[in-house]
Each structure stands twice: as C-alpha cells, then as structure tokens.
Amino acid sequence: MATGTYSGNRQEWRWLWALWIIAAGCTQPQLLPTAPLTAATPLELAQQQLGSGDFVGAAAAFSRLAETSQEPAATTLRNRASLIRLDLGEPLASAPNSGQAAALSAGMQALASQQAGPALAALLPVQTAALDPYERGLYLRTLGRAQLLNGEPQPAAINLTLAERFPLPAKRRGELTYAIWAALTQSGLAALVGQLKPEAPQAAGWLALLDLEARTGGSPVEFALELARWQSTYPHHPAQSLLVEELLEKAEEGQTPVHRIALILPLEGPLAKVATAIRDGFIAARFAQADPAAMPDIVVYAASAAQTPAVVKLAVAEGADFLVGPLEKPAVEALLAQGELGAPLLALNTTARQAEGSRAFYQFGLRPEDEAGDLAAHAWQQGARRAIAMVPNSDLGRRLLGALRAQWEAQGGELVESVRYNHDVSSYKAAVRQTFGMAESEARAQALAGVVRRAIAFDAVRRNDVDAVLLVAAPHDARQLLPQFRYYAADGLPIYATSLVYSGAPDQRADTDLNGLSFGDSSWALDLGDVALKHIFVRQWGADAAYLRFYAFGVDAWGLVSHLRTLRGQAEQTLEGATGTLSVDAGGVVHRKLKWARFVNGRPRPLER
C-alpha cells in the first residue's frame, strides 16, 4: 500500500497520418539494385565489393590480396581489411599500427569508449585527400560523432551529412541517421541554413524535417500531416525507415505528460537501507526543480519482490501514469513476464532479458558487471593490450572476471592470466607473486641449482610481458595488494580498478598506499557535475558515504523519467547524471559511462576521459 504522497484522441491523428500517406502515394524507401560485379583484377573486384555494400566479402578479399602482395602494398591491404572489420564491429587480433589506417583505427576505438578528446586528437593528422571513398566516409562518420560527443554539433552536422555520400555497412546506417538528427536538433535550424554542403546528398530533406518539427512540435495532428507531405517529397530519405516512426511516437507522447509517479521499493528487509537512500534521492531531486509545484506527484509504495506485481496493478488503478522500481531482480523479471503493465516503467535493476516490442519498459541498474566492462574499455584506450586480471575469490569476483574477459577480448586484447585472492595477508602476497610470475622464476633457479649441484646466487625476476593490471578489490584489499606490487618493482605498471576500490569518502592517510591507481566511479563520488544535492545529503542529512552512490542513483532515476523517450536508441544522446554519463539503448536499457580518477597523495584526482 502507499506509504506517502509527495506533492484530441491519440489514435485519431495517427489514422489521419496513415490515410494521407495512402492518398499521397508515399512509399517506403526501396533497396536499389546493384550492378553486377565485373573486374579485371582481384583488387578491382575487392573495390567493387566494397562499393556495392559487400563489406564482409571485401574484407576477406583484401586479406587474401595482402597474403600474396609485397610490401608496402601488403600492409596497406591488411590495414584496409582491418578497418572494415573494425567498422563491422568484429574483434581484431591486431589493429593497424601505421599510417592513416592507424589514426582512423585509434579514433574509432576512442569513440567507442565515449572519449571525444582522444578520438579527435587521433583523427587530426589524417590527410583526407589520400583516402579512398570508403575511408573518406569512415573518417567523416567518426569525426562527426566525435565532434557531437565533444559538444560541437554544427561541424558534426556538416561532416555527418557529407558522410552519406559514401558506402557504409548496413549496421552503421542507423547509427549515422541518429547521429545526424542529434547534431541537427542540437544545432538548430537557424545555425545550419547555408552551412550544410551542397554535395551532401540528403541535406535538403534533413533541413526540411528539422523545420517541420520546429513548426509543428506542439500539435501532433499537424505534425503527422506535415510529416506525410515530407515523406512524399523525400521518398528515399534514410530517415524514412529509421526515424519517422520514432518522431511520431515522440509527438504523441509529448501530449501525455506524467502527473503521478509510483515509486515501488522494498523499504523493509535486507535492502531497506539501500531502498531508503534511493527513495530520498528521488524525492529530493523532485523538490530541487525550479518549479517543484509543477512536477508530478510521487506516491511511494513499499513492496517486497513477491508483492510487486500486485502493487503495480494497485498503483495504476490509483492513477499512476509512470512507474519507478522495483529494485529486486526477481521482481523485474516477473514484471517483464507479465507484459503490459498499464503505464511506462523504469525498473531499478537489469536482467539479461529485454522487453521485446515494448517502448514502455526501461531498465536502469548499478551493475558491477557494467563497471567491469567500463574498466576494460578504459584500460584499452590508455594503450594496454596484454593484461592480468586480479579478482576476489568469491561469486562476485567470478562474475566480474567474466565481464572483464568478455570486454577485453572483444576489443582484441589478451588476458594473459587471471588471479584470485582471498582476504588474508598470505593470500595477498601469493596472488601478487602469481601475477608477476615470481614463483616460476624461483622454480627455474631451484631446478638450475639441482643440475649444477650447488647453491647459486639468484634474484627472482618478475614477468615483463604485460602492460596493465585490471583489479577488482575493496579498499582494505587494495591497500594490502599495492605495497606488494611495489615490493616486486612493479609500481610503474598501470593498475585500473572498479569503484569498489574507493569508499566514497576521502581518507588521505589510508589511501596513500593506493597512489597511482586509476579507477572509475560515479560523478558524485568524485565531486563532479552538479553536486548541490550531494552536499545537502552529506552536510545537512549526515548521509553515510557507503550509501551515497544510492542517493545518486535515486537522483538519476528522477532525471531519467522525463528523458527516456528522447534518449532511447540514440547513442549520441546522453544525460549527465549523478552516477555518470547515461544513455539508453534501443531495448530500453540504461547504460553508464563512469568518470575516472587517479589516487595522488592519497586522494582521488579526476582525469579527463
């Protein structure tokens, strides 16, 4: 039951839109037939495959040609194949390491980890005149998305619309379309008139679409009619099959604002303290708005996992038009299995399953596995390729090791060894000795002494075939492990950790042992972004640092309610939150990019990512 309260017809216009399309003879874009491939040489055949959209075949053809070619042509062909495979999202055994291809590859990989600065720096030296048509399009797509991520929508719009001239894999078409729309809407029509290049093939259609949304955004009926006219005028525009339906849904949803939010949490039992922190963060964020009286009402329902389906029905019956919660994974899974809930829902946990076909079910969680994946992506972007993973010998450690390995190997990295430690002094020492191959070095010395039958002077030598350590450790464990690293002269080896390594409260004396270690964490934990509410929780409420990330989670849940529909499926659209940089994939799952810091003089110092 509730524990506290904090205070034209939809289908009609869509039928009008459909009828107008029929009357206007509007058709969906059709795939144009490709000319038959004819080539005098294998190289020409590979180029034709690339131009016709057979990227898999082209990559294989360039690889075969590289095997039978002499240098420097062989390197050029290998690099071409690697770029195509990277564009297709395939893991690479080795990325291009020379010339223009290396710069493009570095830019793509930096962008994949949402690092705009490194991506732009990598692309800056590229000489576009020397690129072939496919590489030119790849360059423009990568540059434009990096500019958009860097807060430069106008140049991004120019480069992204130019990229439509060139061949690209089918899986990248949607990415390009959404990036163009994000760049256009962030720039605004006035800033773009006369700026898009004449050679951009779809520029006129894009500007017309931007104009009609600006003119008719307040009226879904008018928007639907104008959109049908636009479709008739630009029947083969790429936005036809990827964006139009979402714009219609957005216009429809914009007419149904949220009035009453049901916040469903387990306020009793083992998760009570976590749930209470989330509740307080959610409600505080609502009252921190400029006009809190105009915000939706919040009704809090206390519910266990078993009670949640019934409580959801009760909340909807009592007038809730948006649901936030539950927190427990079994409850989320039960609601997913139930299907239609009667109102959109933002679950506060995630499952492996997504709500297929539903645009009213979203999932947002503070999953340690996501942090492990972010850790692997960050270490890769810092140049690490061969790494050792160190995790606690526990269920959590095994789960995070799996996430680390999956992300690391998907990037093309090699996990040389995985080490598990227990929570005692002898285990810390043994784990570090295993990490650096010290036991093997000593065993070789003992074997040699046995052969020569006399004692020999010997200093164990640590392995030097790794360039990073990926660490999962609580503060107490990390403070015991890092001195062991220094003992074995490994203090220069980069160590990257998850947020588990930081308590959330500065402790300069204790954390001096962590100097040099880098870790990812929430914005609030590193005192980044808008921290006014954080300071209220800490200074006025005396909030426990151990629960600060959950207060931040509640704050972000509130912020997401009004942005979910805009963010969904648009990778370039993000929300800067208290827990990190948030985005929403096409399946409704919220993803976080962490902020990064390094311990310096016992204190975390934020890094530019």
What does this structure look like?
This protein is α/β, with parallel strands linked by helices and 609 residues long. The protein folds into three domains: 42-207, Serine Threonine Protein Phosphatase 5, Tetratricopeptide repeat (Alpha Horseshoe); 257-363, Response regulator (Rossmann fold); 369-530 and 577-585 and 592-607, Rossmann fold (3-Layer(aba) Sandwich). The chain is built from 26 helices and 16 strands. Strands 8-7-9-10-11-15-16 form a seven-stranded mixed β-sheet, with helices on both faces.
CATH architectural name of the largest domain: 3-Layer(aba) Sandwich
> Biggest sheet, strands in spatial order?
8-7-9-10-11-15-16
- Which value, in Å, is the CA radius of gyration? 27 Å
Helix content: 40-55%
Q: Number of folding domains?
A: 3
Indicate the proportion of strand residues. 5-15%
